[in-house]
Amino acid sequence: MNESFPSFSIGGARRAVRAGLAAAFVALALPGAMSLAHAEKADQNKPINVEADNLTYDDLKQVTVATGNVVITKGTILIKGDRVEVRQDPQGYQYATATMAPGSKKHASFRQKREGLDEYIDGDAERIDYDGKQDLTTLTRNATVRRLQGLTTVSDTVHGSVITYDGQRDFYTAKGGNDVAAPGNPTGRVRAMLSPKNGGPAPLNGASATLAPSNSIQEPNP
């Protein structure tokens, strides 16, 4: 039986999901916060398109599950994962969760163009959640977010356990955790590389900046 689901478009059986998968990366939740441009505003009114190996839709629960090389686009927004679940509440707000298969060495990913600029916000994590009601995007476990110039050059990088974007306030926060602990960062603190406004960003395929572990930074003499 063919279900009528106007939100998706996947070939003959695919239909466009009309959701608010939008996020903003506009201010750092750190001392000396840096102002960034808004995310692409036109994305808010674009339909969601889903491509996947398999798709199921539960009309009663208003839940759609796509699995197998899932690609979601909404305007300039691009989300990829092994499994993406889209839910709709009674008020029409939609929520999406993207994950990878257990044991996968790859991460779910997110990307969106910035308004009026040839720049993109690009991120990946083991799990990505979007809350269309509050306009929040949350990257969880081994999360990394980059600000790219033209998809090829990294301007800023933030790495942490959980990174959350608040599209309503144009603000984001990053938290540390055990999942990002490493020999040079045993307590799993947040790491960030922030380029000055007129500084020289690094190529996307270049080596990551080396940050001194916190326990090796000496306090100044009184």
Automatic annotation (TrEMBL):
<protein>
    <recommendedName>
        <fullName>Lipopolysaccharide export system protein LptA</fullName>
    </recommendedName>
</protein>
<dbReference type="GO" id="GO:0043165">
    <property type="term" value="P:Gram-negative-bacterium-type cell outer membrane assembly"/>
</dbReference>
<feature type="signal peptide">
    <location>
        <begin position="1"/>
        <end position="39"/>
    </location>
</feature>
<feature type="compositionally biased region" description="Polar residues">
    <location>
        <begin position="207"/>
        <end position="222"/>
    </location>
</feature>
<dbReference type="GO" id="GO:0009279">
    <property type="term" value="C:cell outer membrane"/>
</dbReference>
<dbReference type="InterPro" id="IPR052037">
    <property type="entry name" value="LPS_export_LptA"/>
</dbReference>
<comment type="function">
    <text>Involved in the assembly of lipopolysaccharide (LPS). Required for the translocation of LPS from the inner membrane to the outer membrane.</text>
</comment>
<dbReference type="InterPro" id="IPR005653">
    <property type="entry name" value="OstA-like_N"/>
</dbReference>
<feature type="region of interest" description="Disordered">
    <location>
        <begin position="195"/>
        <end position="222"/>
    </location>
</feature>
<dbReference type="GO" id="GO:0030288">
    <property type="term" value="C:outer membrane-bounded periplasmic space"/>
</dbReference>
<dbReference type="GO" id="GO:0015920">
    <property type="term" value="P:lipopolysaccharide transport"/>
</dbReference>
<dbReference type="Pfam" id="PF03968">
    <property type="entry name" value="LptD_N"/>
</dbReference>
<feature type="domain" description="Organic solvent tolerance-like N-terminal">
    <location>
        <begin position="49"/>
        <end position="170"/>
    </location>
</feature>
<keyword id="KW-0813">Transport</keyword>
<comment type="similarity">
    <text>Belongs to the LptA family.</text>
</comment>
<dbReference type="GO" id="GO:0017089">
    <property type="term" value="F:glycolipid transfer activity"/>
</dbReference>
<keyword id="KW-0574">Periplasm</keyword>
<dbReference type="InterPro" id="IPR014340">
    <property type="entry name" value="LptA"/>
</dbReference>
<keyword id="KW-0732">Signal</keyword>
<comment type="subunit">
    <text>Component of the lipopolysaccharide transport and assembly complex.</text>
</comment>
<dbReference type="GO" id="GO:0001530">
    <property type="term" value="F:lipopolysaccharide binding"/>
</dbReference>
